[in-house]
Amino acid sequence: MDNNIFLNSLDYNSYLKNDEDTNVEISNIFRFLCNTIQQLPIITISNINGLCLNSGIDLILSTDFKISKENSLFGFDKMHIGLYPYGGSCQKLFRHIPLNYAKYLLLTNKIINAQDALKINLIDICIKQNENFFIQNSNIYFEQNLSNEQIFSIIKENILNYFKDIFHHHLFQKKINDDSFIFTLFYSFQFLFIPTYILQNIKVGINGGLNFNDVNSYSDYDRHMFEKCINSIPRLDILYYIKKKKNL
């Protein structure tokens, strides 16, 4: 395996030094960061290429979708020394994956690979494990005798060509050989064709609805969000555009 790291423990050294004030400050800042990401009115995607441990889990649980390279690793490997998750994983993890799997990761100190993370829904896409998703959504014609590897390579070339301007930036030049980053761009592309106000309100509706437990409360909240969308100016603009186009 390579030595790539997505995110590991934030400040392991201050923990070892028993610097309680620094640890509390770091935890508060990081928790605020994770919560802010989770509440953003835009689609957020984690591109995971390497070790995703401890605080890394906190971070990916704050994003809407998680795409990983096949050799990434996931888990909490500092629990045995008493390092409590910084960013809220103890509460967020069992809300994303089955409770027994959440307990297993949090209590056993075990590390799982990307294939197992996919099986328990900790991640949404694992490169080389979800090839059919990219093939079926590529809108490219392929000859019948091509292997999945050959098709994958063709899709990758098309993605690089479409997003070539991104790779001209010095921050992303090294990403041109990173399959997980390239196919994260592909995955994000589908959201460009959904009206922004719908994406924003659905995400706000999901996050807000999590605060309600009984069916009447979250149904009322959902009705409120529906009425907000149905009467919005962007929706009326879209309807006007559709009607105008049909009359041409």
UniProtKB/TrEMBL annotation:
GO CC field: mitochondrion
Annotated TM spans: none
Listed CDD domains: crotonase-like
Listed Gene3D superfamilies: 2-enoyl-CoA Hydratase, Chain A, domain 1 (3.90.226.10)
Single Gene Ontology BP annotation: fatty acid beta-oxidation
Taxonomy, superkingdom: Eukaryota
Cross-referenced InterPro entries: ClpP/crotonase-like_dom_sf, Enoyl-CoA_hydra/iso
Record-stated family: Belongs to the enoyl-CoA hydratase/isomerase family.
Protein name: Enoyl-CoA hydratase
